[in-house]
UniProtKB/TrEMBL annotation:
PROSITE patterns: RECF_1 (PS00617), RECF_2 (PS00618). Its main location: cytoplasm. Keywords: ATP-binding, Cytoplasm, DNA damage, DNA repair, DNA replication, DNA-binding, Nucleotide-binding, SOS response. ATP binds at residues 30-37. It is found in: Cytoplasm. It holds the Pfam family SMC_N. This is DNA replication and repair protein RecF. It comes from the Bacteria. Residues 2-364 form the RecF/RecN/SMC N-terminal domain. The RecF protein is involved in DNA metabolism; it is required for DNA replication and normal SOS inducibility. RecF binds preferentially to single-stranded, linear DNA. It also seems to bind ATP. Belongs to the RecF family.
């Protein structure tokens, strides 16, 4: 899978832009604050219908415009597909093959991308919320059903928390509604956790040999999904449901007392271990970076295994954050396999066959230079 062309209208600092790309490495060069990251972000937003940099969609619209439009043509193994995303102050409208999609969850997954930016190095040492968002974004690309289940879970969780707050303040005294909401929450919580457990297992399978290669065989990477449930090595949906039923039954009084849901995938986390030691707590900065890089590169093979096509790789100003050895390993891994976009202020000093054969684009103040 690769993107053949990209057209931007009133997106960030771009008034209009029309680019053609080849199925290889494409390097976007520019000084800071000129628009190279905005260009990379536009490809990501076209795929995911949301930005990796902001949750406020209005920031994506050029300051003097009413809406932003991103269009592209994606070449897949079954042919090319035109896609379009319009972002306005009223919301987002997405089209696949010129047909407007009723739900964004039906649109996400048409284009598969992996974004690797400097902030992704916080995947290991950042908060649990960062890792949960990582899981939700990546699973959602290959499983529209997961996005649907997660959306319903979050909606019911909000309703349940609101009702618990009312019970806490004695505005409500009847617990019947709490039982109904708990039953609904458990149904979708179990589906979300089941899919996350499967994903983490697959991610470890692909990340382990990559990490071993980067560390020259000196380190073994393992992953563990942390949940409040007692879950076996081979998770079963009915057992997860039963475990949640027991958990919520025990927590009932405490949840009413605190006015908030104390169990569920919104409180879970993932840990990464190098040679059996928690890399977040005990790992060096180099080990943490190798772990983050291994996870991102593992996604390439995981997505290919799931959908039968390689995703598009976006490397936003990340080469400067990696030492020469990790740079070379990254570039060697993607060589000839994955359409890749790289942003950088300069490629001086990076002598690698992959970059020497790349397409070069230079950006200045929201304009592409010839």
């Amino acid at each position: 899978m690769y993107i053949q062309n990209l057209t931007l209208s009133s997106y960030r600092n771009y008034e209009c832009l029309d680019l053609q790309f080849e199925d290889k490495v494409n390097i976007i060069i520019g000084e800071n604050a000129q628009g190279k990251t905005n260009l990379m972000e536009a490809i990501y937003v076209l795929a995911m219908a949301k930005s990796h940099r902001t949750s406020n969609d209005k920031e994506l619209i050029r300051w003097d415009a009413d809406y932003a439009k991103i269009e592209g043509r994606i070449m897949k193994k079954n042919g090319s597909v035109p896609i379009q995303l319009v972002i306005s102050k009223k919301g987002k409208k997405a089209k696949l093959n010129h047909i407007e999609q009723q739900k964004l969850s039906q649109y996400v997954g048409a284009v598969n991308t992996i974004m690797f930016a400097p902030e992704d190095l916080n995947l290991v040492k950042g908060s649990p919320q960062v890792r949960r968002r990582f899981l939700d974004m990546e699973i959602g690309q290959v499983s529209p059903v997961y996005l649907h289940d997660l959306s319903l879970y979050q909606k019911i969780l909000s309703q349940r928390n609101h009702f618990l707050k009312q019970l806490q303040t004695r505005k409500q005294t009847d617990h019947t509604m709490l039982d109904v909401l708990t039953e609904q929450l458990i149904e979708f919580a179990a589906k979300v956790v089941m899919k996350r457990l499967q994903f983490v297992d697959q991610l470890e399978k692909w990340a382990k040999p990559i990490h071993s290669g980067i560390s020259r065989g000196l380190e073994e990477l393992t992953l563990k999904y942390h949940t409040s449930l007692h879950v076996s090595e081979t998770p079963d949906l009915s057992k997860i449901i039963n475990s949640y039923q027991e958990s919520f039954s025990k927590l009932r009084d405490k949840e009413i007392d605190r006015g908030v849901s104390l169990s569920g995938p919104h409180r879970d986390d993932v840990s990464f271990y190098v040679n059996g030691r928690d890399v977040q707590t005990y790992g060096s900065q180099g080990q943490q970076r190798t772990t983050a890089l291994s996870l991102k590169l593992a996604e390439i093979d995981l997505i290919q295994e799931e959908i039968g096509e390689y995703p598009i790789l976006l490397l936003d100003d990340v080469l400067s954050e990696l030492d020469d050895y990790r740079q070379s390993h990254l570039l060697h891994t993607i060589q000839g396999r994955v359409q890749t976009f790289v942003t950088t202020t300069s490629i001086d000093g990076i002598d690698h066959k992959t970059l020497n054969e790349a397409g070069i684009f230079r950006v200045e103040n929201g304009t592409l230079l010839d």
